[in-house]
Write a structure and sequence with these properties.
4-stranded antiparallel β-sheet; alpha+beta; 185 residues; 5-stranded mixed β-sheet
Amino acid sequence: MKRYIGVIVVVVVICAAIFWCGRIYSINHGYIDNTQVVEAGEAIECDGLVIRCVEAHIYSIDDYKTRFGVDNVETLSSEDRFVCACLNIENNTNESISWDAVMDMTSCGFESATWCSSVNPYDMQDINVFSDNELKAGADQNIWYVTKAARVSFGDKTWGHMDEETFYYVPVLEPAKIRMKLDME
């Protein structure tokens, strides 16, 4: 009788393991990566906005301060860098869109094969000037999106060759992720 119960327990455990592995397999193979990659300089349209990257750079702290006329920046290390992308945002709708809504629709972040970081809105406040409270219908505006690339986030080999790394700006994650390739100057 004990042997019979032991066999039943073993069979139940094996069936549960097979079911569990099958479930994991079906979930993982059900994922569809519908990421859209846009080449540098190409425009995308999303929620009535036409977005195009017009300029992208990786700046040292001193270069960043000089380029944008900013005196005070906070970083973890003096080696840290700033990854910046200037996007031209055009309102293709018939209505004005508030800047808060524009930022909500476009402020996701930066990524490469080995790194990703969200946009830093506090650094963006210092370098962007908006002439109005909203983006008027048919109007466009260049907006600088910024993040910090901390030295501690990269290995020595990658940090030494950041100019060879391919960077992307990700303005939208849902319903399909859009990666805009940055042509770093």
